[in-house]
Amino acid sequence: MAEYPIVPTTEVANKFLALTERAREHLANLYDSGCWKHYYSEHELVAHARELNRLCDTWAAVTQLGSNGLKALQKPAPPRPNVELSIPQ
SS in 3 state form for the chain? Predict the structure, then answer.
C-alpha cells in the first residue's frame, strides 16, 4: 500500500505562500486605487483582507516547518518496486 505525506511538501507550501501573498498584494492595490468599491462592501473587504492575512501566516508557518527538515514536509522518495519473494518449500 502506498504511503502519502499528511502535510504538503515544502515545494507546494512555498507555491501556496506565494499565491496568497500575490492575492494580498492585489487586494492592497485594489484598496489603494479605490476600485475595491466596485467589487466589495467595506465589511467584505476587511473580512477578505483578514482571511488573506491568516492564510499567509498559515502557509508561512508550514513553509518554516519544511525548512526544519520534518520528514512529512520533505519531497517523498519514489516508491520501491514490489518484489515478490518465493520461499522454497
Answer: CCCCCCCCCHHHHHHHHHHHHHHHHHHHHHHHHCCHHHHCCHHHHHHHHHHHHHHHHHHHHHHHHHHCCCHHHCCCCCCCCCCCCCCCC
